Each structure stands twice: as C-alpha cells, then as structure tokens.
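REVIEWER CHECKLIST
Item 1: Sequence provided? yes
Item 2: Single chain? yes
Item 3: Sequence as submitted:
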Amino acid sequence: MLTFHSFERTQYLEMLELWQNGKGEWAGKSAGDTYGAEHLCRLLVSLPELIAQTNMDQQSVGRLREELIKMTNWLGKKENTLKYFVNEYETPNQSYIDKARGY
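Item 4: Structure as written out by the authors:
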C-alpha cells in the first residue's frame, strides 16, 4: 500500500473507492494512473531515510544512487517536466481540509 502524508490520506481513500468500484473515468485505473511525477519526487526525497533502515550493502546503495541520479536527470529535462508534471495545482476546499483533519 502507498504511504501518504496524513492530509492526503482522505483523498487516497476516496480514490481507492473509485478505482475499486470502477466508476466513470476512474474505471480500471490505479494509483499509477492518478498520481504524477510530483508524488514520485516526494518519494525520492524520502528514499535516503528509508534506505538507511535497510541492510543494503554499500555497493548496492551506490548502484541505486547512480540509477536514481540518472532517473532524476531524465525527469528534470524540460520535455519531461512538461509531460509528467502538472501545470497548475488544485487547492483543497475547506470541506476537504475539515474532513482530512477529522472535523
């Protein structure tokens, strides 16, 4: 299961229901079809901390680091940023904020 910041958990649970129930435009979709490069970048930022909790040897960590550098360089190319990143972010409405905070 994906790990999300607690504020996003509400959205994820709503999306999970749409994916599972196959309603409308979300029929047959999954997290990979819904969440974009921004979420991948957030995962990449947290990877060093996650890797530190593993028993990976230094050679493996070095190899992973090299591959991640290649991937982030590729993702940072202008044509890829235009393709994989959103141009405009949606601001959650007050109803969502209250629901996410448990009010």
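Item 5: Key structural point noted by reviewer: Residues 1-35 form one domain.
Item 6: Recommendation: ____
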